Amino acid sequence: MKMQIAINRRLQVSPLVAVLLTLMGIAFVVAMVRYIYGIGAISNLSNSYPWGFWISFDLFTGVAISSGGFLMAATVYIFELKQFKPLLRPSILTAFLGYIMVVIALLVDLGHPERIWYMMIHMNPTSVLLEIGICVMTYLTVLAIEFAPVVFEGIKWQKFAHFIHRFIMPFVILGVVLSTLHQSSLGSLLLIQPAKLYPLWWTPILPILFFVSAVSIGLSMIILESSLSARYFHRGLETHLLEKLAGVIPIVVGTYLIIRFAQLGLAGDYKYLFSSGLMSVLFWTEILVGSVFPLVYFSFRKNRQSANGLLFGAIVVLLGMILNRFDVSWFAVRHPDPLTYLPTFMSGAHYVPSLPEVAVSLGIFSAGILAFGLAAKYLPVFEEEEPHAEKL
Amino acid sequence: MTDIQHKAFLFDATRCIDCRACMVACSVENKIDMDKTRIWVAGVGLIGQYPELKRASMVYHCMHCNEPDCLSACPVGAYSKRNDGPVLYNKDKCIGCRYCMNACPFGVPHFDWDKGLIDGAFIDKCTMCPQRIDKGLEPACVATCPTDALVFGERADLVKEAHARIQAHPERYVDHVYGEFENGGTSYLILSHVPFAELGLPNLGERPVKDVSEKVMEITIPFALGWGTVLTGTAVAVHLLNQKKAAKAKKVEEEQTEEAVK
């Protein structure tokens, strides 16, 4: 793996960086077209499908993959498991960038991005979306505070770094509370659609399912991001730490499976398991890939101890669990189609994201990867590496 | 839900001739662009098997729910419900998130997909013509309906009227007034000669769809406070435990060094 992220003083740009910058440029142009001519000009969103790819990918997936930040903060600060410290900073950075990406995507998706702050002055306490908005804004601030010591150390303002470090505990606890609320409230967001979301997914305990699955996504994301940065930056991989995290995944997905199937049984929804055509296929794909597979796979120590085994397992968990986010927020949702006054599945109205729509998300994602690379290169993100970590 | 005291519509599908005069009247009254509308007339084609064929058309606009889901969902409180019935939308508060479109089980709120930042993209939906109600007039769609398929009045009276029509001609109607109880009661009551599902109307319970989500929101703040307390307690307990352990380890170490010195 010789690919290298490098913007040095002579402005040599590696191929990866060039691709990322191009994708960002395309997204910027598309966003400008959207701001001038409207969301309809660049997307396939319609009155039948008011939310689409941006919400499923940027909001639902973006928030879920940022959950590693609060998991590591809780592990290191609240449970004082200091040996996990090498994983803390990269996880906080991933979460921080993840949430910034969510906000940027929302600024494209909202009809009135310039009014996003209205959420702070006109509050409707019954709205789940208000809770999400407030959580994003507050947690972004908390993440900035949690990440600030890294920046201050980077620019050699050690005093500021120590100052923040001394008062970090209240922010860590606030961050964990906000994350718990926020991860689960994305599930609550769909509670208002009992008539639209397929019964294999709609349940009053959606917030609990979202929180439990977010934990498995967060753990897998830490494994993925550590593995990839170890490969690209030629640094050591804390395999012995990742092995412990991977060991928790079977417990988490096992709990998830028990809750999920107990709920379906209590609600009397087993009849939909095999009889719903595409919906059954989607359901079993996400269950087998995102839960059953990791339950078995990560139970074998051999798979948890090899770098490649960890990376492969983490990617599979992420694919399965992200499919769940897409199912809940898009694939399994059926809106009525106002023009024919028929539900979309009866009227034949359908939604496939347009190319520019995907380009916006890709551009924002590229910016996130680039920002991670730059931070890893210029700030002491990985400095607390253990001396005996395995070099790749 | 028969005791709701405010204005409502009654639509009778057996009387609708699909002329679409209501659509025109609405757009003129409310100055809606030609390519947009707040009201739709959907012809659902022929229903049934020959020779038992039926035709139906359905006039569709905001149901003006007694407990509006859009109002519950809107993060910035852009929706309101007037005491005399209309569910209103305030574009000055709207941030364009389109959560109301997801929340509404009837798919009523529509968005300006063709407007950028300069024109301003907003939600649009039926208002029950409050400017006409205030003058003692009927909404434009009702005033213009040539066959009285749409009528307007006090909700309680219309519920009685609807049941009276069914009783007078049980062979003509499905024995159900859609909207009397659906989704917590709506102010758009519907009579039909074909099953309501054929008109595309969702099968809804008597409680509004916002019910579960509002209950979850009610316990959110107490949960957050409780969870914060538990986490703080855990952090303090773990810290004290670790300090104790460290002190013990230190003591053992000191004793060992002392012994070594002896």
Question: What can you tell me about this protein's structure?
Answer:
- The complex is a heterodimer of chains A (392) and B (262).
- Chain A is mostly helical.
- Chain A has helices at 15-37, 53-65, 68-78, 85-109, 118-121, 128-154, 158-166, 168-188, 206-232, 239-266, 278-297, 301-305, 307-331, 344-347, 355-378, and strands at residues 236-237, 336-337, 342-343, 390-391.
- Chain A has a domain at 198-335.
- Chain A contains 15 helices and four strands.
- In chain A, the strands form two sheets. A two-stranded antiparallel ribbon of chain A has the order 1-4. A two-stranded antiparallel sheet of chain A has the order 2-3.
- In chain A, helix 2 packs antiparallel against helix 4 (85-109) and helix 10 (239-266) packs across helix 11 (278-297).
- The longest helix of chain A has 28 residues, at 239-266.
- Chain B has 262 residues and is α+β, with helices and mostly antiparallel strands.
- Chain B contains seven helices and nine strands, in the order βαββαββαββααβαβα.
- The model of chain B has no long low-confidence stretch (mean pLDDT 91).
- Chains A and B meet through helix 1, helix 3, helix 6, helix 8 and strand 2 of A and strand 2, helix 2, helix 3, strand 6 and helix 7 of B.
Sum this structure up briefly.
The complex is a heterodimer of chains A (392) and B (262). Chain A has 392 residues and is mainly alpha-helical. Chain A has helices at 15-37, 53-65, 68-78, 85-109, 118-121, 128-154, 158-166, 168-188, 206-232, 239-266, 278-297, 301-305, 307-331, 344-347, 355-378; strands at residues 236-237, 336-337, 342-343, 390-391.
Key structural traits:
heterodimer, A: 392 residues, mainly alpha, two-stranded antiparallel sheet, two-stranded antiparallel ribbon, 4 strands, 68% helix, globular, disordered C terminus, B: 262 residues, alpha+beta, Alpha-Beta Plaits, 2 domains, three-stranded mixed β-sheet, 7 helices, 36% helix, elongated
